[in-house]
Design brief:
The chain is α+β, with helices and mostly antiparallel strands. It is 45% helix and 19% strand. The strands form four sheets. It has a five-stranded antiparallel sheet with strand order 2-9-4-7-10, covered by helices on one side. It has a three-stranded antiparallel sheet with strand order 6-5-8. A two-stranded parallel ribbon has the order 1-3. Strand 11 and strand 12 form a beta hairpin.
Length: 296
């Protein structure tokens, strides 16, 4: 059975367009979501209810005071324990909002460790939970107030404060042993397989490297991947990289050569060929078509 995660587009989800801050926050009520990933980062904070969330194959409990942070293309889904919905703050944004000077290098370095060296989810103690909720309350109020003086600056400041609270709590919890992923296919942990791909897709990632990380043979991994996911490892990697590149084309002014490199393609020639195969047009045609309908 295929478990290919659904892809969600930043531009569709939060309607970020030229001249608008690529940021969104609201209080969501949800019972269950499908397995998905997206090109924006997401910070959530639980207010009511209980359930579970799986991020890159690692499952944790959701209850009031639990915060989660996902980097682009981290795969995840949530499920309530009962018919009662989970109520949480959901904050989605372009990660570049947090970075504007060399003084933020430490925050940048720590954020990109989430999901690998730092946990994606943290249970705050009551005092810190109250502090985080207060910050998010102010952030939400400012987001709703479209005419506030210095609104964008205020949002950026409060967003940075929220992320620092999360990072400090995650750093403190980093020495705790992570939960086990779901085992399947003769002991192969597919949660870890997909986590590793989604964390390292922009690097020189090969089937052999993935197999070595999972401590199985490349042949066994290849067969199991096709059976479980519904496509080959390389097809999955190409699709993930193309989705990342398409997002950068819509939301940045980076050159296509730089985008190809940042998305993990070994050369512009392979990027152009694979992009055309999956999107039905060349990268240049894709960017031009997006701009022509008001995207930039």
């Amino acid at each position: 059975m295929s478990v290919f995660p659904q892809y969600e587009d930043l531009m569709t989800m939060i309607a970020a367009r030229s001249g608008k801050l690529p940021f969104y926050i609201s209080i969501h009520s949800v019972r269950q979501t499908r397995v998905h990933h997206h090109d924006f980062v997401e910070l959530t904070f639980m207010l009511e209810g209980s359930g579970s969330e799986t991020i890159n194959g690692v499952t944790h409990r959701m209850q009031p005071g639990v915060a989660s942070f996902l980097l682009p293309h981290h795969i995840h889904h949530v499920e309530s324990d009962s018919d009662r919905p989970l109520v949480k703050y959901c904050c989605m944004f372009d990660i570049n909002l947090l970075f504007g000077s060399a003084y933020e290098a430490e925050l940048s370095r720590l954020l990109f460790r989430v999901g690998s060296e730092l946990p994606s989810s943290v249970a705050f103690d009551p005092a810190l939970a109250a502090q985080m909720q207060s910050v998010l309350d102010m952030l939400h109020a400012e987001y709703v107030n479209k005419d506030g003086i210095g609104r964008n600056s205020f949002i950026r400041v409060k967003l940075t404060e929220a992320m620092l609270l999360f990072i400090r709590a995650a750093q403190a919890a980093a020495d705790a042993p992570p939960p086990s992923g779901e085992l399947s296919e003769a002991g192969l942990d597919f949660g870890e397989v997909l986590r590793f791909i989604h964390v390292h897709y922009a690097e020189p990632l090969t089937l052999d490297r993935l197999a070595e990380h999972c401590r199985v043979s490349a042949a066994h991994l290849s067969r199991s991947f096709k059976k479980r996911i519904g496509c080959s490892f390389l097809d999955y990697l190409h699709r993930l990289r193309v989705e990342s590149a398409a997002s950068m084309m819509r939301s940045t002014d980076m050159t296509l050569i730089d985008i190809a490199a940042d998305a993990g393609f070994p050369s512009y020639r392979s990027f152009s060929r694979i992009f055309r195969d999956l999107q039905g047009r060349t990268p240049s045609e894709y960017r031009l078509a997006f701009k022509s309908v008001g995207g930039g």
